[in-house]
Structures are given as structure tokens and as C-alpha cells.
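Exercise 7b. C-alpha cells:
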């Protein structure tokens, strides 16, 4: 479902979208997937060796996951800079923003958040009970109330 969502967003913005499949034979349940953001950053480096610029992460405040922290961003940025001789950096522009702040920003900028997907169960229809679904339900309630 995340792949479908990302494809729709890339299509909306008319940007190239590439899929890299890493199958570890594990079915992850709800919650933290240790090392996920580090894996995604390093996979971006390995799969696009010609790239120079910034790898942006959409992580935000309000989570206890290490790979959504300032320490993680600082550490992974150092690794990436050293691996690329400084031609690639990692940034997390929403690191200190709450989900509500991000929602307000998206609303103001007319970003198509209806194309996003936020369920940890990965089912066609969001499960409604995981942490991501509960967060999204709060945002949806605010949206309906005009907040």
C-alpha cells in the first residue's frame, strides 16, 4: 500500500519513481521496525550512485523511535557525508514538527495528502486501530471540523 501511495504522489508531481525490493523474509507487525530509516537512506545511496544533493526524510516529532530523532539524523548524515565525500547530505525538515503542524502546512500549500497511506497493518483498507491510523483519525477529525 505504501508503494501504491508513493506511486500516486510521484505521478501527481510528475517525478520519476523507482522501487527497490528488499525481501528479508520477515513479516513486520505494527510499531517500530528497527533500522528502517537507516536502511532506506543507505538503499537510496546504493541504488543511485550518481546522485548528489539532499536525501530528505519525512520524520517528525512525537515519536519515541530512535530513527526519528535528532541524534539519528545527525549520525546518518555524518555516515552519508563520509561515504559520499560530502556530495550527499541527509535532512529532515519536519523533524521538530508535530503531525498537526505538518497537516496544517500541507493544507496551506495544497499538498495532496489524500494520496498518502498511513496504516502499519498494510491492508487495502486502513485497520483503524494501529498508532498510524489513530493519528490519522485525529487529523481527519480536525479536517472535518475545519481546523
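Sequence design result:
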Amino acid at each position: 500500500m505504501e508503494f501504491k501511495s508513493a506511486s500516486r504522489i510521484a505521478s501527481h508531481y510528475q517525478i520519476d519513481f523507482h522501487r527497490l525490493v528488499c525481501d528479508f523474509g520477515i513479516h513486520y507487525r505494527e510499531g517500530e521496525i528497527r533500522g528502517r530509516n537507516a536502511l532506506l537512506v543507505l538503499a537510496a545511496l546504493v541504488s543511485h550512485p550518481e546522485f548528489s544533493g539532499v536525501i530528505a526524510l519525512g520524520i517528525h516529532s512525537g515519536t519515541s523511535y530512535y530513527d526519528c530523532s535528532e541524534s539519528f539524523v545527525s549520525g546518518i548524515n555524518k555516515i552519508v557525508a563520509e561515504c559520499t565525500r560530502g556530495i550527499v547530505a541527509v535532512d529532515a525538515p519536519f523533524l521538530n514538527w508535530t503531525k498537526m503542524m505538518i497537516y496544517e502546512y500541507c493544507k496551506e500549500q495544497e499538498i495532496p495528502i489524500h494520496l498518502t497511506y498511513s496504516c502499519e497493518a498494510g491492508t487495502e483498507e486502513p485497520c483503524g486501530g494501529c498508532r498510524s491510523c489513530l493519528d490519522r483519525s485525529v487529523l481527519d477529525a480536525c479536517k472535518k471540523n475545519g481546523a
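Instructor comment: The chain has one domain: 2-144. Residues 10 and 16 are 7 Å apart (CA to CA).
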